[in-house]
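Retro notes, structure queue

What went well: the backlog is down to a handful. What didn't: a couple of records were mislabeled last round, so from now on we paste the full input next to the output in the thread. Example, using NADH dehydrogenase from Streptomyces flaveus:
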Amino acid sequence: MDKLKTALRHGWVNTAISRGTTPESPNGARILIVGGGYVGMYTALRLQRKLKAELKRGDVEIVVVTPDPYMTYQPFLPEAAAGNISPRHVVVPLRRVLDQCKIVIGEAQSIDHAKRTATLTTLATQEEGAEPEQISYDQLVLAPGSVSRVLPVPGLADHGIGFKTVEEAIGLRNHVIEQMDIASSTRDPAIRDAALTFVFVGGGFAGVEALGELEDMARYTARYYHNVKPEDMKWILVEASNRILPEVGEEMGKYTVTELRRRNIDVRLETRLESCVDRVAVLSDGARFPTRTVVWTAGVKPHPILAATDLPLNERGRLKCTAELTVEGVTHAWAAGDAAAVPDVTSKEPGTETAPNAQHAVRQARTLGDNIVHSLRGEPLETYSHAYAGSVASLGLHKGVAHVYGRKLKGYSAWFMHRTYHLSRVPTFNRKARVMAEWTLAGLFKREIVSLGSLEHPRAEFELAAGGKPPEDPKGSS
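Corresponding output:
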């Protein structure tokens, strides 16, 4: 929440929460949405459109609690890291999109659904040093998403880099270019070798796409260094299972391994990261790689807020839900996305749940919003039903792999499908137009190779000029 304190201090956000009681009209309701990601934003947007009259009359209030004032379109993070898209254009400002909702920048600490109350930590409570405050609600939507699943690997907390937020994506881009700068100027061969070794842990979409885009970017950037060549760099992908990208199918997964190895990327299957103490990545197969870069993308886990509720959870820590997206066994509680275990009614296998991915999250949000409206109006609820269409993945500029509706694509055609699909899915016409403009300009001009690592410590130069001490790591290197 440190970055949120800065926003409050400069007056960039308004954090006030009305403490009044909920409306008392027959259909009156305060709808509390916890989370501003795919499900949170799209549910609020759906409610905003469906309840125009009620919102105008004041019969309904929609409150969205989110740690960030924007929604991140995560499929574009690899392209943002590679410099193909501006970071601003992979996020959607919630206040502009949800202009009929009350946006609260903060986090839910606990939820007592029996009492219909949530305990929140906001920017104001942190700045004032006050106790967390409570807000009452009539309808609850739990959509906090997930957090990175970090295993107790020695040294990982000190040297690892995540890849789940736009800040991490840009920080990783800056870090990679800075390592190339270090390698270009050092006289120590050990430091040079460690700087040019990049280890990615996790063979899912995040790890494979991040590695593919950044390796492609670094390969291009190397042409502007007089003493750093693409063959000097080592890129290692570590995956604990025997395949990568399981969502695109076994055949396309094997093709991806072949394609990455063709680019001299070291793909190690059935291998785990055992340690990265003292900037040495030690793998379960005995390999050791001195490195200054360990990117951790090995899965996610349910958000901790779920364990701080009185709502039913399954063995994996996700909310037990019905096919109508209500929380099982309780009333006035809803959930979808990564936080929810939703039955897959399209599957022939009993007990199957929908996959926790963006494709389902966006569609579930639409049904969830409609069902809340149906509930308020005393109408029958809809069942969420969507057969998984398939997956697309980018492996770098003009490189990709796809398995959609049974059709398998690779290379340029898969990359083109990846771009067109996600362009159609990124929220708001504003962002679609800006992303399209950037892609068009990128085709006419050379790629950006600028590192802005100093953004991670924006006051460092001023503090030094004022007689203070510079940060230990002014460029943000791990």
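Agreed that this is the format going forward. Reviewer comment attached to the example: Residues 3-27 have pLDDT under 50 and may be disordered.
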